[in-house]
Design a protein that fits this description.
Belongs to the radical SAM superfamily. 7-carboxy-7-deazaguanine synthase family. The protein is an alpha/beta fold and 210 residues long. It contains five helices and nine strands. It has one domain: Aldolase class I (TIM Barrel, Alpha-Beta Barrel). Helix 1 runs parallel beside helix 2.
């Protein structure tokens, strides 16, 4: 199987429980909740995405012929040393492409493998860290994992149902749109009302990182 990757880069994880950790990000092309084209945004299931995942023309992107080729590129971005190797598979929706061969090859190269998924597809069972970001209006089938990251406010989200899912961490992330501070205030207010949740911010944007 070949893999279509929009971009790949070395950075610090900016969100969630793993925030601040050195990581290679692999952003897969394509998503099942939005085409990525602005003309389709209004009719998409997910209409607030702030990520370009179309094509394979980004930094480090391309079409990789097999898992070995993709993992070799990940290793090049990480650089020397095998200590605490960390890779984040994201998108778009990475589970449209992630398979046995890729997960096994990343593990063989010494990487701790994390994924950021919308949860509409089952996550590969050998992923080491599962972060699910459910989207209102979609069917979340992956209802267990390490962290659930809900972008807020998101009308139509059933918080009581979500809180019944089997995640170790429940995180609220203010939506990054024109409402700005109002979204931050709304997220903080909900955390104060429902202490099971924690606030998470997009620190990579604050720091000027990718």
């Amino acid at each position: 199987m070949s893999y279509a990757v929009k971009e790949m880069f070395l950075t610090l994880q900016g969100e969630g429980v793993q925030a601040g950790r050195r990581a290679v990000f692999v952003r897969f092309a394509g998503c099942n909740l939005w085409s990525g084209r602005e003309q389709d945004r209004a009719s998409a299931v997910c209409r607030f995405c702030d990520t370009d995942f179309i094509g394979t023309d980004g930094l480090g992107g391309g079409r990789f012929a097999d898992a070995a080729a993709l993992v070799a590129a990940v290793e090049d971005f990480w650089g020397a040393g095998r200590e605490r190797r960390f890779v984040v598979l994201t998108g778009g929706e990475p589970m449209l492409q992630v398979d046995d061969a890729l997960v096994d090859a990343l593990h063989d190269a010494g990487f701790f493998v994390a994924i950021e998924s919308n949860g509409t597809l089952p996550v590969h069972p050998r992923i080491d860290w599962v972060c699910i970001s459910p989207k209102a209006g979609s069917e979340t089938v992956q209802r267990r994992g390490d962290e659930l990251k809900l972008v807020w406010p998101q009308p139509g989200s059933d918080l009581s149902m979500i809180e019944g899912w089997a995640f170790d961490h429940f995180l609220l992330q203010p939506m990054d749109d024109a409402r700005g501070q109002a979204n931050v205030d709304a997220a903080m207010a909900l955390v104060m009302e429902r202490p099971r949740w924690r606030l998470t911010l997009q620190t990579h944007k604050m720091l000027g990182l990718r």
